Amino acid sequence: MQNRLSGRPKMPQRPPKERIKDFEEVPLGLPEWAAVEEAKRCLQCKKPQCVQGCPVEIDIPGFLKLVAEGRFEDAIAKIKEKNSLPAICGRVCPQETQCEEKCVLGKKGQPIAIGYLERFVADYEREKGIRPPSAPSWNGHRVAVIGSGPAGLTCAGDLAKMGYQVTIFEALHAPGGVLVYGIPEFRLPKSIVAQEVDYVRSLGVEIELSCVVGKTLTIDDLREEGYEAFFIGTGAGLPYFLNIPGENLNGIYSANEFLTRTNLMKAYLFPEFDTPVKIGRRVAVIGGGNVAMDAARCALRLGAEEVCLVYRRTKKEMPARVEEVERAEEEGVNCIILTNPVRFIGNDNGWVTGIECIQMELGEPDESGRRRPVPIPGSEFVIPIDTVVVAIGQGPNPLLLETIKGLALNKKGYIAADPQTGATSLPGVFAGGDIVTGAATVISAMGAGKRAARSIDLYLKDPNKFPQWR
Ligand SMILES: Cc1cc2nc3c(=O)[nH]c(=O)nc-3n(C[C@H](O)[C@H](O)[C@H](O)COP(=O)(O)OP(=O)(O)OC[C@H]3O[C@@H](n4cnc5c(N)ncnc54)[C@H](O)[C@@H]3O)c2cc1C
Ligand code: SF4
């Protein structure tokens, strides 16, 4: 058996032909010897740039040194000083644009595989049994967190570690936000999300499910119940549509509905679970982000014979993680680039049968810094199709926001909050994650939850530290 690495290790993964037949996890994790060898490559920099690239401030060289010494339990304890969701982050964080992008070894060679090692120690601990944390005594204050995605879980966990009594209120019947309803099982097994949520619970956090704040109860009700501060982490779960003719035809899903049916409601196990999802022989997914990749790969596993991804720029501009694009292509997803839908075509029964598209070329950069796609006149063509999934982004759900009088929103309808403290326009109300930034990443939502926890602590100890609310 090989026991020496020649550079950064490759993640072992299941072969494409096998994995597209089920929803089991695709990457298999590093073997122990490879994890130790890789951690030994770390230079233990005095001023570690990698830490600056980590929104939750993990002591990366500290945990890598422990891995290199084979002290895996101590390594996971070091990570958990800052991050209560390491098995999740080790799987879905875009490390290539965060900690690993900053690693000095990346300047001349390959950066340390920090994400793979985070996953390794988190999995090691899970197999051995997760050590329960010691709970601090209650400091007398109660905080309400709205939404149980990565932002809410992090804020709640950090506050609990400081001695606050925290309750998370979650609209869905399962905690985890996008981690349970969006990201598929083959990328992030739900048993792992459940275990990390249980870890947050073991810190003393209570989670009330099926409670839509704004409908079931309001922030004012919660204030009357004795909650003194609030963190809103309700995410961006409202799907955007293309707004082109034919979009109401049967067989056209928003990615949100398609992925929620498939993942949270377990449509891939129908009829054992009672939510179906109708899938045709030929499926088109519109978009180029992680959501689009997930939808395309789910469609394959649900039995589609051909799955294509229709994207208006080139592969270089796709917002999805590079390794997820590679995996989708290995599995047979066909990326149709520089192409934009202009209308959907249907049959007499009202079902979609095709997408009329127009070819695009790249023009000058737009406000996102990417070159703007421009239609090529007269280049229209039709892709025959049975099912479409629209995965072009999400926005803020207005339900809660409309019930909070005086909560300032920005131009796009997201909560206006101070990026450093998470403070909103209302005293004692903080916000963070996708509901403030728009659809972003798990780790940036966690970073916002962490910063808000610090601010809530500061606020409850001395409200004068927030002069804007006086
Ligand atoms: C399909 C998909 C794949 C993705 N893949 C990746 C990836 O690989 N890597 C990555 O880093 N990021 C990925 N992302 C983005 C990432 O998941 C999000 O940026 C992140 O989950 C945002 O966290 P959040 O806590 O702000 O919100 P969410 O995760 O959206 O959680 C918000 C929670 O609030 C609840 N809620 C909403 N309104 C109310 C209310 N009124 N009352 C009570 N509860 C409410 C919701 O039900 C939800 O559970 C992906 C997103 C999607 C959709
Ligand atoms: S920057 Fe890279 S080499 Fe330096 S401490 Fe961080 S992981 Fe190790």
From TrEMBL:
Its EC number is 1.4.1.13. Gene3D superfamilies: Alpha-helical ferredoxin, FAD/NAD(P)-binding domain. Transmembrane segments: none annotated. InterPro entries: DPD_II (IPR028261), FAD/NAD-bd_sf (IPR036188), FAD/NAD-binding_dom (IPR023753), Helical_ferredxn (IPR009051), SudA-like (IPR006004). GO terms for molecular function: glutamate synthase (NADPH) activity. It comes from the Bacteria. The keyword Transport does not apply. Keywords: Oxidoreductase. Residues 19-129 form the Dihydroprymidine dehydrogenase domain. It is an enzyme of class 1 (oxidoreductase). Residues 142-449 form the FAD/NAD(P)-binding domain. This is NADPH-dependent glutamate synthase. It comes from Thermatribacter velox. The lineage of its organism: Bacteria, Pseudomonadati, Atribacterota, Atribacteria, Atribacterales.
